[in-house]
């Protein structure tokens, strides 16, 4: 099980993915402070391009499809963190 799981949340366009990319690039500057933890994994948000396209085409009709796609992506990321050691950061 992961020792730490950090979830970055916010609205679309708030900079979650940019922050995750920054942390990925500079992880050696930050994460050596966590009890010598060297196993840091960053997992970007999964967005199904087809579900996103359908959502933007007709939000009323395809909101459920898009939300379910996002939910399944979060589930996969959380299961990966649950069964692996180290620190996980995901948006």
Please tell me the overall pLDDT: 84
Poorly predicted runs? none
Report the major sheet: 3 strands, parallel
Order of helices and strands: EHHEHHE
Beta-strand share of residues: 5-15%
Helix content: 40-55%
What structural class do helix, strand and pairing data support?
alpha/beta
Number of helices: 4
Order the strands across the largest sheet as they lie in space: 1-3-2
Q: What is the CA–CA distance across the termini?
A: 19 Å
Molecular shape: elongated
Overall number of strands: 3
What is the alpha-carbon Rg in Å? 15 Å
Report on the architecture of this protein.
The chain is of the alpha/beta class and 91 residues long. Helix content is 52%, strand content 13%. It is built from four helices and three strands. It has helices at residues 16-25, 27-30, 49-57, 59-82, and strands spanning 4-7, 40-43, 87-90. A three-stranded parallel beta sheet has the order 1-3-2, with helices on one face. α3 (49-57) packs antiparallel against α4 (59-82). The radius of gyration is 15 Å and the shape is elongated. The protein starts with a strand and ends with a strand. The mean pLDDT is 84.
Furnish the topology, listing elements before pairings.
Elements: E1 4-7, H1 16-25, H2 27-30, E2 40-43, H3 49-57, H4 59-82, E3 87-90
Question: In a few lines, what is going on in this structure?
Answer:
This protein is α/β, with parallel strands linked by helices and 91 residues long. Helices cover 52% and strands 13% of the residues.
